[in-house]
Amino acid sequence: ATSLLRSRSMIVKLVRLTLFLCLVQKRSHGWVSTSGVKRHRRITGSRFRIHAAPQHEGEEVDVVVIGAGVGGLSCAALACKYGLKTVCLEAHDTPGGVAHSFDRFTSASKDVPFRFDSGPSLISGLSQKGTNPLRQLLDAVGTIDEIQWITYDGWIVHDYADGKKLRLTTGDGDEFAKALEEKEGLAARREFEVFRDKMLEPRGLSEASTYIPPFALRGGLSAVASLARYTLKLLSIGPKGGLLTGPFSKVLDNNDVSHPFIRKWFDYLAFALSGLDAAHTQAAPVVYTMRDLHSNNAILDYPKGGMSSLIDALVSGITKHGGSVRTNALVEKVILENNGKGAECSGVVLQNGDLIKARRGVVCNAPLWNMARILRDSLEEEDSREKEDDPNESKIRAAVKKIQQSADDLCMTGSFMHLHLGIPADGLDDLECHHSVLDFSLDITAEQNMVIISIPTVFDPDLAPDGYHIVHAYTAACDSFEPWVEYLDGKEEGGKVGVSPNSGTSASYGRAEGYQTLKEEKGDVLWKAVECVIPDVRQRAKQKGSIALVGTPLTHRRYNQRFRGTYGPAPSPGKDVWVLGGSNTGIRKLLACGDTCFPGIGLPGVAASGTIAANTLASVRAQSK
């Protein structure tokens, strides 16, 4: 190691790579229910008290986090662990963002609700210690043992093109390879096996994707110090770094993967991860996922009690270290000031007028497009304060304008249709929990081509009244938002969702002429997909005690506070893959985390972004510990 570090060329490479990582971190950048269903807004049985928004002014903390998605909760939990007095503010009445759960009661039971996951349902790398950033975060804040994990080994993929299905079985056995051969022939199997083995070989691309943990990263030039212990790992990445940050299709090309179905398969896997095909998805998350799926003893995980159990553990990581999560607390503005050198954020103003000051900083977990709207709203009174400082253009306005430009330049993926069902379980004894339904003969990005189905009561019957299953089906980021724009107030997306996800104002689109007809039309693809698994699902959904909830891209936008209901970022014009900013925004003491920040979409990605933001707020010494 000493000889290696004495090499001048190696030192130059290390300096260049370290500066690159620093610069990356420095860059700115409605459910409708069936009749007679009782609505129950708050998660029943939650183990943590979620405080209402404060009714006084002038509160002061170290850190304010805007948004209680997984990224925001991860940031707040780690900031609390670092000893920073932290409050996490959430507009919804339930934390979790896209990963929140919700309950509905029917005549099936007065005491036990149907508990539905609103978002991700297929996860891995959490039940065992390893390289998953969310697992590492839960280990660090000491709440991983609050979750009971149910493990399993695969899911079913249904292909409309030939009427066949295959089972992806995890681990390093040959079950999945045999399934590929049965469906597509021996040539497909052999090509997949060669490529898989190449990706998973020692010091290969999959292993390289895990070398630098998020706990080693932070914003600004101080990242040089936090990365010092990973010098050899950085050097060993070498040319793999360019492959990991480039499109996954290039990795396929470099390894002579040419079989049409295998190329389609990796388009499917990339799309499930990012809402983009392999030509526009960064290689790093795909090769990382291959490691999660195909390494020795690889398994998939589901938290008993649903995704709310995972969210509860993150909330617990905040409260046990002295922080708080406040729901129904919609941030209207951030407080922007000119500190003489440039724009600085010193706190937030809630919609009810309450002010919370932040000594150390504000972290925005809202997507970049929504953050830009909050910043624009924060400029209302700024000009009069700064005219004497700069007669042409205020430094604050310039900083906000730069972030708005970054938001305008960042493209986005499609949105979702959702179908949540509670149906009688009689006769459904041999169900698998997870299914994907699509037509492999079409482009993976075709409108409404891919539907993902989750039936978690296969694992955890307590998620529904006795004798019932719950089903969640959704189009995986392949629904256009355009047909729904006319139902928005002002018939355009302004980046502001409304007073509250549960308010009548934010749900006004549901009463607009034509909305229900379009919802029924667009939702039919979900029913047809579920019929591949449960042929008589429509009849079951009409039985007494059943429930059927159809959500549209406007529903997704409303409850999850997502701009245009999007899944997340997409490459800008002329780019193969997305280029995302880090935790620093260009406004001092205003940081960002979430899926529009490095490293991007997905539970591991947003947990990593929250970790990086919290690290940036803490000292290097505290981070190193």
In short:
This protein is of the alpha/beta class. It contains 22 helices and 23 strands.
Helix content: 25-40%
Question: What value does the Rg take, in angstroms?
Answer: 24 Å
Strand content: 15-25%
Q: What is the number of E strands?
A: 23
Secondary structure category:
alpha/beta
**Main beta-sheet annotation:** 8 strands, mixed
Counted by DSSP, the helix tally is 22
Q: Which consecutive residue ranges, at least 5 long each, have pLDDT under 50?
A: 1-56
Distance between the termini: 24 Å
Overall mean pLDDT stands at 89
- Which of globular, elongated, flat, extended, rod-shaped describes the shape? globular
Structural summary, described in words:
This protein is α/β, with parallel strands linked by helices and 625 residues long. The strands form five sheets. Strands 2, 3, 4, 12, 13, 14, 15 and 23 form an eight-stranded mixed beta sheet that branches. A seven-stranded mixed beta sheet has the order 10-9-18-19-20-17-21. The chain has a three-stranded antiparallel beta sheet with strand order 1-5-6, with no helix packed on it. Helix 15 (368-377) runs antiparallel to helix 17 (395-409). The longest helix is centred in the first third of the chain and has 19 residues, at 8-26. It is globular, with a radius of gyration of 24 Å. It starts with a helix and ends with a helix. Residues 1-56 have low confidence and may be disordered.
